[in-house]
Write a structure and sequence with these properties.
Blueprint (H helix, E strand, L loop, with lengths): L1 H4 L1 H11 L7 H10 L6 H4 L7 H24 L7 H24 L5 H27 L2
Helix pairs in contact: 2-5, 3-5, 6-7
Length: about 140
C-alpha cells in the first residue's frame, strides 16, 4: 500500500539521508508486524485465546505505531526545522510508556522484550528530543 502512495520511496529516502536512521524504523517495523495481532511473535508465545476485543485493540495500536513510525521518518530529512512535531511524537511515546509502567506496577512484569521497550522508550524519548535540539541549534 505504501508503494501506491509513494510512501515507501519517501521512507527509504528519509532513512538514507537521516543523521540517525533508526528514529522511526522500530515503530514502523513494530506496526507492520503487530498488525497480525495475537499472531505477532511477541504475543504468540503467550498462547492467548482468540478474543475480538484484544485482536481489534492490538491491530489498532499496531496501526498507530506504524503511523508514528512513518511520521518520524517523514520528519527526519527536515529534522532541524521540525522541533514541535518531533517533540509531540516523542511525547506520545513517553506518555504511552507511563501506561506500560503503571501496568507493571498494578499487575506484573511483562515478558523481557516489553521491559526493554519500556526502558528504551522512557529513556529514549528525552534523548531523542535532546538530540533533535542539538541539530536544530547547529542549523539555526
Amino acid at each position: 500500500m505504501g508503494a501506491i502512495w509513494g510512501l515507501e520511496d519517501r521512507l527509504e529516502q528519509a532513512e538514507s539521508r537521516s543523521h540517525f536512521s533508526g528514529s522511526g524504523d522500530g515503530s514502523r517495523r513494530n506496526g507492520i508486524i503487530g498488525l497480525s495481532s495475537i499472531s505477532d511473535p511477541l504475543y504468540a508465545s503467550a498462547h492467548l485465546p482468540a478474543n475480538a476485543l484484544a485482536d481489534s485493540t492490538l491491530r489498532f495500536l499496531s496501526g498507530v505505531w506504524l503511523g508514528l513510525g512513518v511520521a518520524m521518518l517523514w520528519k527526519v530529512p527536515r529534522i532541524e526545522k521540525e522541533t514541535a512535531v518531533f517533540r509531540v511524537l516523542w511525547g506520545m511515546i513517553f506518555v504511552g510508556r507511563i501506561g506500560r509502567l503503571i501496568s507493571m506496577l498494578a499487575l506484573s512484569w511483562p515478558p523481557a522484550p516489553f521491559i526493554g521497550f519500556t526502558g528504551l522508550e522512557i529513556i529514549g524519548a528525552p534523548l531523542f528530543v535532546f538530540w533533535q535540539a542539538l541539530i536544530a541549534e547547529r542549523h539555526a
